[in-house]
Amino acid sequence: MAEESIFIESGGPRLEGLIHYSQGPKAVVVSHPHPFYGGDMFNNVVESILNAYQGRGYTTLRFNFRGVGQSGGTHDGGISEQEDVRSCLEHVAGLGKTDIDLGGYSFGSWVNCLGLGSYAQVKRMIMISPPVNFLEFSFLRYDARIQLVIAGSEDDIAPPAMIERVLPVWNAEALLEVIEGADHFYWDKTGEIEEIIGRFLDSTHKPVRE
Question: What angle do CA 137, 115, 73 make, to 5 degrees?
Answer without folding.
Answer: 110
